């Protein structure tokens, strides 16, 4: 039977169970795509350019003929690529999209349907998903922020909350950056801004679905708007500023020890380069002292200098939240212990909800 055309809502639902194939060029895919999609380019970057030139300078028919010349020889390899992804699956169904849901996805859908696969195509293509993703950034979500000074183990607390069945959106994982000058150490390359927004939009949708089912909120880390090279979209960030912050109050020395455990074996050169990136704000003397400590292997002393800088920076952000009428709820913790601190947050959240009902 012919491919079934579906809208973005249905596409999102089915993406949880069916493999998704992006048939745009490898360059388009590398820039941004539907999270989790497999690249199955009908035309490569150069071929796409040739076809586009023929369409503009000659005719649509000429462009189609050139496209068919490229398409024919790779039909078998494309079918085999899909077969590999479907190996072990009982249902031989796939979803396909291109830029606008036009000829590229239509051609590949025809081929896969002819071979015997159950095929779905996205109405409006990637452009429709992109529009949906942007809209997610302007919506209001039941967000609850996990805050705390640098070294408080906020990421680990979020992971523990997720293990306890809570809805969580890990902004740093999506951005592939831990937020500070050291944020890229031990992380993969950051996505493009567009890809970050795509992943964030999908993560928010998934978290909201889970939160609604359990009548709970969505936990996110209290972040600066900029995370490495990407930014939390302004509408969403402005909304976050007014949400409650469960602030982990952990002793300075405990946070230094936590950072020492996390970065103690990191490449010294990378640590020094990270310090140099903030030297203007840190100051010449403190920069020199921190670098000397790192080079000498005294990680704790080096990070103690950096923590004093980051603590001052974070205090300013808390003042901004106070101006935005955000509620800062202190969570007094003796040490960086994700399990214990997550339980304290949940306990305090229950008290807050109870107080609102009285």
TrEMBL record:
<dbReference type="Pfam" id="PF26341">
    <property type="entry name" value="AAA_SelU"/>
</dbReference>
<dbReference type="GO" id="GO:0002098">
    <property type="term" value="P:tRNA wobble uridine modification"/>
</dbReference>
<dbReference type="Pfam" id="PF00581">
    <property type="entry name" value="Rhodanese"/>
</dbReference>
<feature type="domain" description="Rhodanese">
    <location>
        <begin position="14"/>
        <end position="135"/>
    </location>
</feature>
<dbReference type="InterPro" id="IPR058840">
    <property type="entry name" value="AAA_SelU"/>
</dbReference>
<protein>
    <submittedName>
        <fullName>tRNA 2-selenouridine synthase</fullName>
    </submittedName>
</protein>
<dbReference type="InterPro" id="IPR036873">
    <property type="entry name" value="Rhodanese-like_dom_sf"/>
</dbReference>
<dbReference type="InterPro" id="IPR017582">
    <property type="entry name" value="SelU"/>
</dbReference>
<dbReference type="GO" id="GO:0043828">
    <property type="term" value="F:tRNA 2-selenouridine synthase activity"/>
</dbReference>
<dbReference type="InterPro" id="IPR001763">
    <property type="entry name" value="Rhodanese-like_dom"/>
</dbReference>
<keyword id="KW-0711">Selenium</keyword>
């Amino acid at each position: 039977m012919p491919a079934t055309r579906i809208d973005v809502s249905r596409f999102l639902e089915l993406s949880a169970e069916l493999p998704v194939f992006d048939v745009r060029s490898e360059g388009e895919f590398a820039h941004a795509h539907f999270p989790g999609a497999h690249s199955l380019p009908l035309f490569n970057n150069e071929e796409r350019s040739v076809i586009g030139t023929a369409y503009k300078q000659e005719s649509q028919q000429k462009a189609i003929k050139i496209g068919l010349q490229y398409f024919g020889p790779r039909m078998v390899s494309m079918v085999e690529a899909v077969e590999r992804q479907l190996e072990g699956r009982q249902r031989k169904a796939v979803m396909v999209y291109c830029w606008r849901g036009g000829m590229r996805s239509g051609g590949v859908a025809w081929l896969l349907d002819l071979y015997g696969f159950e095929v779905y195509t996205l109405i409006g293509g990637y452009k429709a998903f992109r529009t949906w993703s942007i809209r997610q950034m302007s919506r209001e979500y039941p967000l609850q922020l996990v805050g705390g000074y640098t070294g408080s183990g906020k990421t680990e607390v979020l992971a523990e909350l997720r293990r306890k069945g809570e809805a969580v959106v890990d902004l740093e994982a999506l951005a592939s950056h831990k937020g500070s000058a050291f944020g890229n150490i031990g992380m993969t390359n950051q996505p493009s801004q567009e890809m970050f927004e795509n992943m964030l939009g999908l993560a928010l949708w998934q978290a909201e679905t889970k939160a609604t089912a359990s009548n709970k909120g969505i936990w996110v880390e209290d972040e600066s708007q900029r995370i490495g090279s990407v930014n939390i979209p302004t509408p969403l960030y402005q909304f976050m500023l007014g949400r409650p912050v469960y602030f982990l109050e952990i002793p300075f020395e405990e946070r230094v020890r936590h950072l020492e455990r996390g970065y103690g074996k990191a490449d010294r050169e990378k640590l020094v380069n990270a310090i140099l990136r903030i030297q203007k704000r840190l100051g010449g003397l403190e920069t020199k002292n921190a670098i000397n400590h790192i080079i000498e292997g005294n990680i704790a002393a080096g990070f103690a200098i950096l923590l004093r800088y980051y603590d001052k920076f974070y205090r300013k952000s808390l003042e901004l939240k106070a101006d935005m009428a955000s509620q800062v709820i202190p969570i007094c913790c003796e040490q960086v212990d994700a399990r214990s601190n997550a339980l304290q947050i949940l306990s305090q959240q229950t008290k807050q909800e109870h107080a609102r009902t009285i």
